[in-house]
Q: What sequence folds into this?
């Protein structure tokens, strides 16, 4: 995983709004610490999660956060919304104001939503070319017919975008329930695919994203930090594809 990087003098010059020539003096005087150690190298490469201080004042001390949330129905996957509460309202976390959503769910969909302040990680997880698989438990209004299997497997043409969806796996569990696995996330994709058969989706719950599965102990609206293993596995699964 590569993070966005910057030279130390560039970061300090931008953060303190002073010219690089003055930054050189600060650094030479031993007033700058990087990762807890005095740093005399203005060209030192730092990233958004490198702790940097000047004379004991923090310039940046971001800690990477990776959160799984069990989204309830009725919450929007957005930072702000005029009509509905957002998933951000559920994460009351003052130490981490820079969280963003790594892969959205519709208003009435439920289940696994990943949140992070690490844009490199979320980009790698959501980049369409990377084919991270996402598994959804879907309930539809009418019986699922045998013909769906082939249509989902072949991909469907969406005229609005002018694209054919990547092959979708449909595992029928019951007369009106199925597991659907997507490797991309087109707008309302699952609803539109069942909609092609005039079969409305009445329940849509995301169970997993890549190698990360929703923790069953999380009630709707609850969240927890990912383990280190989950953070790595989420991204590694894609590299195998
Ligand atoms: N497909 C949908 O139609 N909605 C979602 O929330 C996710 C996938």
A:
């Amino acid at each position: 995983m590569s993070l966005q990087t910057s030279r130390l003098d560039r970061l300090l010059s931008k953060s303190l709004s002073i010219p690089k020539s003055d930054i050189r003096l600060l650094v030479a005087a031993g007033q700058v610490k990087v990762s807890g150690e005095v740093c005399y190298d203005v060209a030192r490469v730092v990233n958004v999660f490198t702790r940097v201080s000047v004379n004991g004042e923090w310039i940046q001390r971001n800690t990477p956060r990776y959160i799984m949330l069990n989204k309830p129905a009725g919450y929007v996957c957005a930072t702000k919304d005029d009509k509905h509460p957002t998933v951000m309202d559920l994460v009351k976390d003052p130490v981490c104001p820079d969280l963003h959503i790594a892969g959205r769910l519709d208003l009435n969909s439920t289940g696994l939503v990943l949140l992070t302040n690490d844009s490199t990680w979320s980009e790698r997880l959501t980049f369409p070319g990377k084919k991270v698989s996402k598994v959804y438990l879907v309930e539809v209004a009418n019986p699922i017919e045998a013909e769906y299997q082939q249509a989902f497997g072949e991909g469907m043409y969406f005229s609005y975008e002018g694209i054919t969806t990547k092959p979708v796996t449909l595992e029928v569990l019951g007369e009106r329930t199925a597991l659907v696995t997507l490797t991309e996330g087109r707008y309302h994709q699952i609803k539109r695919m069942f909609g092609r058969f005039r079969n409305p989706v009445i329940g849509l719950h995301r169970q997993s994203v890549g190698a990360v599965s929703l923790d069953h102990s999380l009630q709707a609206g609850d969240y927890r930090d990912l383990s280190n293993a989950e953070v790595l596995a989420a991204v590694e699964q894609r590299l195998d594809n």
